[in-house]
Known about the structure:
- The chain has helices at residues 5-9, 11-23, 32-45, 104-121, 141-147, 150-153, 208-225, 263-284, 303-317, 335-341, 369-383, and strands at residues 49-54, 58-64, 71-77, 127-133, 156-165, 173-174, 178-181, 183-192, 196-197, 232-241, 247-248, 251-260, 287-294, 299-301, 322-323, 344-350.
- By secondary structure, it is an alpha/beta fold.
- The protein has 2 domains: 5-180 and 298-383, 3-Layer(aba) Sandwich (Aminopeptidase), CATH 3.40.630.10; 183-294, Alpha-Beta Plaits (2-Layer Sandwich).
- A hairpin with a 3-residue loop joins β1 and β2 (58-64).
- α7 runs antiparallel to α8 (263-284).
- The longest helix has 22 residues, at 263-284.
- It is elongated.
Amino acid sequence: MPVLNSIAAFADDMKTWRRHLHAHPELGFECHETAAFVAARLREFGVDEIHEGIATSGVVAILEGRGEGPTIGLRADMDALPMADESGAEHASTVPGRSHACGHDGHTAMLLGAARYLAETRNFAGRVALIFQPAEETGGGGRVMVEEGVMDRFDVSEVYAIHNAPQFEAGHFLTSPGPIMAAVDEFSIQVSGRGGHAAYPHTCVDPIPALVAIAQGFDTIVSRNADPIDRLVVTVTQIHAGSAMNVTPGRGTIAGTVRSFTPAMRDLAERRIREIADGAAAMFGVEVDTGYLRDYPPTVNHAREAGRAADVAADLVGEARVHRDVRPAMGAEDFSYMLEARPGAYLKLGTGGGPLCHHPAFDFPDEIAPLGASFFARLVELRQPPM
């Protein structure tokens, strides 16, 4: 697997970093120990500036190159997931109920590897902004970092990120101009009726038939309301009602997510969710309170930057291992906010099988990290050659 020689020489260090992070996962914005570990490594490498506490626990480090030039941003996410670690690895999570089951430990190790290499070689003009971000999984740390002025404060001109992809062959890079990840919205509907004894249904207003009708009605949003050419997913992920076999509950909740790529589909989904819930209220004599949150926007690559990133990947691994028009995925990514703020591209790096991201047995393969670090390093060197 093509890896820059200097990075290959410290691949064992990258493994050590990654496994330490895997064993000590943190959630959301509270990635303080992770950020401290990252900052300590960056100081060892001799970066020029370290800025901490951005978006609560985010870190931005600056590397100065040889001569004047723009600033290229490279981003890694640091947070883990609130789920058990069932990897069985020696370096498995030491924190019950928390796991790096999406590979953000690997992403952080990759960017640290690139930082070490770039700090040693300085074979580029301008500057590099190394962006270590909390709260990708929940909370939108990317949005908060942008709102706190990261792009303007550090004069970032372009920004790039990589995400591991177990479903693709190891060492293959995948990207695309335009949409590559979906927008995600969340809905939660409380249905209120009148509880009572299950033996006397005529004295109750049962919310459960309404919950069932709402869930079934949501299936028609995609099948009967959306243009089949457009991409839309409406998924009910929770239905809660009742506490005993002989009690009709007084209320229940139905919740889930919406995935789409266009404002029109977001508008359609929200409108129909509200209409279907209101219709069920009228039909079953219950009351509904519909909450709808528009969360991460779609992740949309800039065509020129996606092409340049693919060219860098081809220079590293060969054109046969670069896929320049990968199909958009319905997952979401808060790197979308950074791409709304600056030109750039999001890439996927195949890791060659095993449990998929968000599976409790997932563990990032250490042999992939040096390749991701090499991509980041070559991206900087080729985009911003020294004066």
